Amino acid sequence: MTGNKVLTASDVDPILQEFSNSLTNKNVSAEIAQEICKQLKKELIGTQTASFTTIQQTIQEALVESIEQLLTPKRNIDILKEAVSAQKKGQVYSMVFIGVNGVKINFSCQNCLLFEEQR
């Protein structure tokens, strides 16, 4: 069915279950996968799909939006300042790079270069 449908649990459950399985197959913990799907379901139930849009497309758009919100920093972080501050305190400063293969490597190399230049 496409367009202008008010979503119910029976509409979204099979798609979210498939998505949850996909996440766990990609090494995301089952607990996290279920929590993501629970939040998506809560957001989607009662919403209406746009004209000429399938239920799957609507869920996919909601998922992209949810992930963008999750990964968007809530504050600006000055990596150099925080790393220097940790070093002065004798602490280790750790960073985690999340992204598509290749992008993470390039980004981590750029950060290494930045730190090397500031030495």
Q: Would you give an account of this structure?
A:
By secondary structure, this protein is mainly α. The protein contains five helices and no strands. It folds into two domains: 63 residues, no CATH class; 40 residues, no CATH class.
Structural class: mainly alpha
Instruction: Calculate the mean pLDDT score and round it.
Output: 85
Q: What series of H and E elements makes up the topology?
A: HHHHH
The shape is elongated
Q: What is the radius of gyration computed over CA atoms, rounded to a whole number of angstroms?
A: 20 Å
| Residue share in β-strands | under 5%
Q: How many helices?
A: 5
What level of helicity do the residues show? 55-70%
What is the number of domains?
Answer: 2
Q: Report the uncertain regions.
A: none
- Largest sheet entry: none
Number of strands: 0
Q: Termini, distance in Å? A: 60 Å
How does the SSE layout of this entry go?
Blueprint (H helix, E strand, L loop, with lengths): L8 H17 L4 H15 L10 H17 L7 H10 L14 H16 L1
Helix pairs in contact: 1-2
Compose a concise summary of this entry.
It is built from five helices and no strands. It has 119 residues and is mainly alpha-helical. The longest helix has 17 residues.
What labels would you give this structure?
elongated, 5 helices, 2 domains, mainly alpha, 119 residues
